[in-house]
Fold this sequence. Notes:
The protein has 155 residues and is mainly α. GO terms for molecular function: nucleic acid binding.
Amino acid sequence: MVWAGVTADGKTPLVFVQPGVKIDQNYYEKEILMRHMKPWADNHFSGAPWIFQQDSAPAHRAKKTMEWFAKQNVDFITPEEWPANSPDINPMDFAIWGILKAKVSSAPHANLDDLKATLIKEWAKIPVETLRAAVDDVPKRLRACMKEKGGNFEI
């Protein structure tokens, strides 16, 4: 499993989760948010305002996770504000993961370390213009989602 985040002008490093690890709220807070996301965001945004958006995975919507965001003064979209099962409005899901998967799947990998190396190399190649286009597409997708009252929509 791999975790990553994007903004219109940058991307986090990829975070690899060891096989067999269950991503519960404790792991998510300590290993993803505290160890990777927050230091990256503090450096990237340098005090400028930003909002964290994530999907509705159980560890993401856990009460303890929401409390962590509040304690860290991280502005975030709450699970109540974000529609469940909404990959069509999450730029990682509707664009970025697919781009990375297509690049990485174009050749076989001898082992897990080879796959990780390829993921890191291809992740680094995704240009900021691609990130900007994905993030800029979100408002249009949100409007379509609202028009369909959270149901399926085509873009």
